[in-house]
Amino acid sequence: MELKGNKGEWSEIYIFFKLLSDGKIYAADKNMEKIRDKFLSIVRIIREEIKGKEYSYFTGETVIIKLNENEVATIDCSKIKSYKSKIWDMITSATETTFTNKDITDFLESIKIQKLKSPAEKSNRFFGGTQDIVLETLDYRSGINQIMGFSCKSDIDAGSTLFNASGDNTNFEYKIIGKIDDKIMQDFNILVDNQGHTSVGKRMKFLHDKNLDLEFINPVGNIARENLITCCGTEMPLIVGGMLKYYFYERNGEKTCLKECLDYLARKDFAKYGFKNNYDAYRLRIENLLYSMFTGLRLGKRWDGKSEVNGGYIVVKKDGDVVAYHSCIADEFKNFLMEKLRFETPSCSRHKCMGIYKKGNEYFIKFPLQLRFSLKQNISYSINDNNYLCVAEPETEYK
User: Fold this and answer.
1) Going along 9-105, which residue ranges are E strands?
2) Is the pTM of this model over 0.85?
């Protein structure tokens, strides 16, 4: 057997070895630095590559491996630490998209690991079934054991999405304000880039050149509107509409962090709160929205606001350290989501957005909602009006 995978997939195995050898994982702040007095002790790591075959790896100087509660192997923890280092060296030195190492894969087979990823039968118990690793932990504060599912993210790999666009379920409608006619609509709709893809930058510049503004109307889908109101109140559709207007119309679809949107909302007072110090009011609602998205909020299916989430994210840093953001430490977790997420433009043709259309004598456009993690540190920076550090990755093209 010779397992082959990319950096993200091998990072999940590295996390497995790191947690198994350390026996604990520290919580982190928004800058991915350890919080030394907040951690979870790890009792065991659970893998279920095949339905009905649950392997448990118990931490300690001697790692005990059990299959469905029956002991099947033991291994000295020093060997786990040795292979942890070999895996990290392989990941950081890799030059190909996918790669392998026979010595490592042979060792994985000896400890009952035959797949890089471990889809568990219990996946629906954790934040939408997206966990990559399942731990039994002991909370240092309460002394209570619980099973927790985590999604693995890699600071050395490309960011993944928190919230994916889904056609009109995640589209938001705006009315075009100003002098516009069918000719302007047609000229707008043919603007593309050199590859023939929708050019958000060209189209938004066109609107500005024609002195056309946008007025937010509503989410396109009724369920989306209901879910946003259920999540954070009647003003939430307007708040999301304001953020998308800033990202697309004001920023021409360039990489935009949520902190920049937060400044914009507070300055314009999109929700019409009517008081001067409104920054925290917007911040709290956006953080609650992001947390709800993490726990399973989607805009195409009615949501009752309930969550059974007890996991979070585990991040591999560039130096090989591993830290966690989990729902037991809600404030740090929300700060992480706010700090590390940015807007992204999905496929405009697939999601039926970014083109002007006409209803009666009025003209409209749809903007899509999609959020992606931006964990990498070696990128460009800017300081916003509230002295927050905003991060932007190098520009990429979206189809």
Assistant:
1) 24-28, 34-50, 53-58, 62-67, 70-76
2) no
Q: State both tokens at 29.
A: 């702040």
Residue-wise over 181-207: b if at least 16 C-beta within 10 A, else e?
eeebbeebeebeeeeeebbbbebbebb
Residues of the chain with pLDDT under 70: 1, 119-130, 140, 155-159, 307-310, 327-329, 375-399
Contact of 66 with 50, CB cutoff 8 Å: no
CB 371 within 8 Å of CB 343: yes
Any bridge partners for residue 325, and if so which?
A: 313
CA–CA distance, 29 with 35 (Å, rounded to integer): 6
pLDDT score of 129:
41
How far out from the chain centre does Cα 74 lie?
36
Q: Choose among 312, 309, 340, 324: nearest CA to 18.
A: 324
- Please give the pLDDT value at position 304: 86
Measured on CA atoms in the order 170, 175, 177, 180, is the torsion positive or negative?
Answer: positive
**Which one, of 369, 398, 370, lies nearest residue 241 by Cα?**
369
Q: Are strands 322-326 and 24-28 parallel, antiparallel or unpaired?
A: parallel
Give the pLDDT confidence score for residue 295 in this predicted structure.
77
For the record, the structure tokens of 268 come out as 């314009």
Rounded Cα gap, residues 358 and 232, in angstroms: 31
